[in-house]
Structures are given as structure tokens and as C-alpha cells.
């Protein structure tokens, strides 16, 4: 659990059953996913840089997806 708290610190700032902090964290993760998607779309046409940014964007979106899942689990009180 300590490893998760080091890699994804923001979902653990959510208080259980606190809708305000939950929504704020979800919006942050959704905006990060949107920006990564836009970067992938813009830079995908450049041969070498497109591959690098596609990999980087995929990792950022995976990080955000796991962060969203952790936010939901923390909000529901499944993890402490």
C-alpha cells in the first residue's frame, strides 16, 4: 500500500464519502487524459516523435486510469 501511495499520492488525499475532493481529483485525471490524447493526435503524424509520444501518452493515460480507479475505491472506503 505504501508503494501505491508513493506512485499515486493524489487519490489518497480523498476523504471517504467527501464528494467535493472526489470530483476535483476525477476532473484532474480526466484533464490529464484529455491533454495526453490531444498530444498523441497532434504528434502522431511525425515519424519518430510520433512513436515516442504515442508510448508516452499511453503511459500517461494508463497512469490516469489507475488513478481514477484508486479515487473511486478510496471514495467508497474500500482502501484506507
How would you sum up this structure, described in words?
It is a single chain. This protein has 80 residues and is mainly alpha-helical. Helix content is 76%, strand content 0%. The protein contains three helices and no strands. It has helices at 2-7, 19-43, 47-76. The mean pLDDT is 87.
Salient structural properties:
80 residues; 3 helices; elongated
Biggest sheet, open or closed, and with what strands and sense? Answer: none
Helix and strand pattern: HHH
How much helix, percentage-wise, in residues? over 70%
Could you tell me the radius of gyration in angstroms? Answer: 15 Å
Record field, number of beta strands: 0
> Which stretches are low in confidence, meaning pLDDT under 50 for 5 or more residues running?
none
Number of helices: 3
Terminus-to-terminus distance: 9 Å
Average predicted local confidence, pLDDT:
87
The assigned structural class equals mainly alpha
Dominant shape: elongated
- Beta-strand percentage? under 5%
Amino acid at each position: 500500500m505504501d508503494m501505491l501511495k508513493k506512485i499515486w499520492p493524489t487519490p489518497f488525499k480523498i476523504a471517504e464519502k467527501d464528494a467535493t475532493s472526489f470530483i476535483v481529483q476525477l476532473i484532474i485525471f480526466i484533464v490529464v487524459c484529455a491533454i495526453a490524447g490531444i498530444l498523441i493526435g497532434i504528434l502522431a503524424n511525425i515519424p519518430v516523435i510520433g512513436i515516442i509520444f504515442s508510448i508516452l501518452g499511453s503511459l500517461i493515460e494508463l497512469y490516469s486510469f489507475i488513478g481514477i480507479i484508486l479515487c473511486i475505491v478510496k471514495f467508497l472506503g474500500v482502501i484506507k
